[in-house]
């Protein structure tokens, strides 16, 4: 996959506008507008964007997960 980044917390990334793409060593996922993706803590990933994209990101430790 090349270089990417990771977070210490789980994340939910919501695509409010456009298309969100996330790539990990396990595969690639696409979320169209009004959909979300779950990124587990510690997962090395890339999330390139093209054009106009609006997204929100929530991070939390989500106890028990």
UniProtKB/TrEMBL annotation:
Ranges for domain AraC-type arabinose-binding/dimerisation: 6-52
Region annotation (Disordered) ranges: 45-65
Polar residues bias spans: 45-55
GO molecular function: DNA binding
GO annotation, biological process: regulation of DNA-templated transcription
Origin organism lineage: Bacteria, Bacillati, Actinomycetota, Actinomycetes, Kitasatosporales
Protein name: AraC-type arabinose-binding/dimerisation domain-containing protein
Annotated InterPro entries: AraC-bd, RmlC_Cupin_sf
Keywords: DNA-binding
């Amino acid at each position: 996959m090349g270089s990417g980044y990771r977070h210490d917390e789980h994340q939910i990334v919501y695509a409010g506008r456009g298309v969100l793409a996330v790539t990990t060593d396990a595969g690639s996922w696409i979320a169209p507008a009004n959909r979300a993706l779950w990124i587990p803590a510690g997962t090395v990933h890339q999330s390139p964007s093209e054009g106009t994209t609006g997204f929100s990101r929530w991070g939390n430790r989500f106890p028990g997960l």
